[in-house]
Specification:
The protein is an all-alpha fold. The chain has two helices and no strands.
Length: 85
């Protein structure tokens, strides 16, 4: 094989390795972004659960305002239905 052909072959190998590395890096970036989005979704779900727990633990009998009491009863019912299924 001539030195020109060897050089072309070597340069082709280097180029294809470069392309493979770029694709791998892009795939890793996508995976990292997806993981970050999943973590953010889990954080939001945990925060929502925390707020819902506060509502569920609210003693509605002690609420004097009838409109507010109905609101909390409705919210408790909604949360329990959501969690049931």
């Amino acid at each position: 094989m001539s030195s020109i052909a060897k050089s072309i072959s070597y340069n082709s190998e280097i180029f294809f390795e470069y392309l493979d590395n770029r694709v791998s890096n892009k795939q890793r970036q996508v995976e990292v972004r997806m993981t970050c989005q999943q973590n953010e979704a889990k954080k939001l779900a945990a925060e929502e659960m925390k707020e819902e727990n506060k509502i569920l633990l609210k003693d509605v009998i002690s609420i004097r305002d009838p409109v507010l009491r109905v609101f909390f009863v409705d919210e408790q019912t909604r949360i329990l239905r959501k969690r049931a299924g």
